[in-house]
Amino acid sequence: MRRVILIILDSVGIGALPDAKAHNDEGADTLGNLYLARGRLKIPNLVQLGLGLLADIGAKTTVPIGCYGKMAERSAGKDTTSGHWEIAGIIADRPFPTYPAGFPQDLLAEFEKRIGTRTLGNYPASGTAIINQLGREHLSTGYPIIYTSADSVFQIAVHEQVVPLETLYEYSRVARNLLTGEHAVGRVIARPFKGTANNFERSNALRKDFSLPPPESTLLDHLLDRSRFVVGVGKIGDIFSHRGLSDEIHTSNNMDGVDKTIATMHKYQDQSGLIFTNLVDFDMVFGHRRDVEGYASALEGFDRRLPQLFHAMSGGDILIIAADHGCDPTFKHHTDHTREYVPLLVCGEGLNKNVSLGTRETFADCGQTIADFLDAKSLAHGLSFKKDILDERL
After folding, report:
1. How many domains does the chain have?
2. What is the pTM of this model?
3. Which domain holds residue 270?
4. Secondary structure (H, E, C), the chain
């Protein structure tokens, strides 16, 4: 039985794409600039897989134990949804709408009408900043805080002790149903927080994303059609609007994500399918907040866990480590995602070692290869690199 473990290091880009200028992202290089800013990056296991041959991080190996390359995003956006959808075979020809001046007043008025209350905010902001700015007023009025970012998101923040979680989630469902057509944002995000004025804290474990459904069948759907298991670990279920999954496992942070990925590997030991994991802390906790030290430490923390992932693998398993976009924590132009290449690292017993996969023209090559390995219907986009990595002697 063959299994694929696909781990997305959310936002770990490795250098600006040729069209980065159109996104105001010239010079962005999440991994390379992180190393330059910090002066060190201790990730020997990722280096051993070949990452040091893709990015200047102060270390490289001459004989990687994996296959390595980089992927370019063909979709028009640079966000979580378009990145994951492209991996699963959907290439978006236009970006999701964004709202640098806030949402139109008529749209917001309709939202308020549907939920039966006024709102606060309605401007682009950091989540931690806006709850500190408007949290006190929210406590006294109960009005939900609405904000967006450079991403295509409609975010709703409420205090756990002021608005019940289920009410927050209902507000989010109302917004999702409202935001269609020209206002079809990629995600509506429920953002509960707790604490007292001047000491508010987001409750990230209770965050819930309400994503736009994929417009067509994805790799996940094709795998289910072939009776393969498909388990989403982290926010995968939210990204794919809870479609194409046999099981969803939510996580509280990166290390919990690794723990639950390993537990899922043990649970599905004798079955064929895909474990699809997103480790979001790199992006949500460190990238957008421009926390160089935190980002680097998180990468080192993941690297230390890699031997445990290797140990949990069976003979037919394939481990793929990639990313969905960049979010350079050193970038000064904005706090948005950055338009970058992403790494592609592949290893497993029975696979070739020290093979360069070159520069892939689309993230969909990754999904097409998974479909190829797991004998699922081919995707509409992408070229499989199965023949490049499979050691046919074994």
Report:
1. 2
2. 0.92
3. 3-95+214-389
4. CCEEEEEEECCCCCCECCCHHHHCCCCCCHHHHHHHHHCCCCCHHHHHHCHHHCCCCCCCCCCCCCEEEEECCCCCCCCHHHHHHHHCCCCCCCCCCCCCCCCCHHHHHHHHHHHCCCCEEEEECCHHHHHHHHHHHHHHHCCCEEEECCCCEEEEEEECCCCCHHHHHHHHHHHHHHCCHHHCCCEEEEEEEEEECCEEEECHHHCEEEECCCCCCCHHHHHHHCCCEEEEECCHHHHCCCCCCCEEECCCCHHHHHHHHHHHHHHCCCCCEEEEEEECHHHHHHHCCCCHHHHHHHHHHHHHHHHHHHHHCCCCEEEEEECCCECCCCCCCCCCCECECEEEEEECCCECCCEEEEEECCCHHHHHHHHHHCCCCCCCCCCCCHHHHECCCC
